[in-house]
Amino acid sequence: MLNNTALQPAVLDDIGPPSWCYETRFNGWNAAPDILVPDYWKQFRAPAPYLHYILGCLYICLMSVALIGNAIVIYIFSVSKSLRTPTNMFVIGLAMADLLMMSKTPVFIYNCFHLGPVFGQLGCDIYAIVGTYSGIGSAFCNAVIAYDRYRVIVHPFSKSGMTMTKAIAILVIVYLYITPFAILPALKIWSRFVPEGFLTSCSSDFYMQDFNGRSYIVGTWFFGWFIPVAAIIFFYAQIFLAVKDHEEKIKEQARKMNVDSFRSNEALKNSSAEVRIAKTAMCVVLLFLTSWVPYILVAFIAGFSDPKLKRVTPVISMIPAMTIKGSACFDPFFYALSHPRYRLELQNKLPWLCINEKAEASGPADDSVSKTTEHVA
User: Could you tell me which residue ranges the G-protein coupled receptors family 1 profile domain spans (predicted)?
Assistant: First the structure.
């Protein structure tokens, strides 16, 4: 049975965008009655079928790139003894969060080619639960990797080392921490999960404009996004200041001794390796922010603006949904581009990729870097 409430005829005020972008039927015309379609989306005309098909094809490309790239990361880091360290558990955790994020895209693609939600409210809830775990999990994995870089580079002689048990425990705590944000909306206790935009994907109800709905938006933003981002910025700022201070002290000591530099080539290589690792991780974080900021902005605009203004259209709402998927695609390629040991293992395990990495790139210089530092990108 179709959602007949969306079959009302369009009037002039409802036309909005040109007809080649939208149908004459209203959004949600083919939604099953058990699925919670917000009234906000019902006031828009349904997107034209070709928009659904284009979006479905784009997601097929994103899914393929992310699944292949992250699967290779997990495989290489798992089977290579030189990369099997406690710290790299966080790298594997990040790759698994990316894989989890992309695991729900087949549902989205299936919905796209059927022009609407197919699996009802239960399918919508499962889709949004997976998205919550993977999205916030990715943010906290980046934060934990930043903390580990901070611990190793800024406090290299700290007695609190990272063990495999501690690394696994941290990942378990992270996902326990995320659980209320994923489960409570599914139980309709704190906000709720509903279709968004094209009604082919699901997230929390940004247009539930009461204390319940708005508190979820603010709570998720603060506890699930702002805290890990603030931690990331703090840790990398401390790394930058520590490296800068260390370099200045070396130069000052060299001037006092009337030499250009008394650091050996080996020490220079080790220092540059640690700085390179920090810069690489920072690039990953910046791209992560670029992927998620549009989504956060849309959530706040939707939750705290007058729905009558129609500031967020179905097409606009799907743009940040796509940028989020980009974060799951670029992570593995940063590992490949910036991690000599990873590239070497990639060459050994998957020679058909034609990496052509020289063994010297991960030779003594990398070996002398601390065990937890040398393997993380």
Answer: 69-335
CA–CA gap between residue 184 and residue 204 (Å, rounded): 11
The string of pLDDT tens digits covering residues 167-203 is: 999 999 999 999 999 999 999 999 999 998 899 999 9
Separation between Cα atoms, residue 365 and residue 377, nearest integer Å: 16
* Domain ranges (residues) in the chain: 39-352
Domain 39-352 has CATH 1.20.1070.10: yes
What pTM did the predictor assign? 0.82
Q: For 350-371, what is each residue's pLDDT tens digit?
A: 777 767 666 654 443 333 333 4
Q: Contact, 108 vs 66, CB < 8 A?
A: no
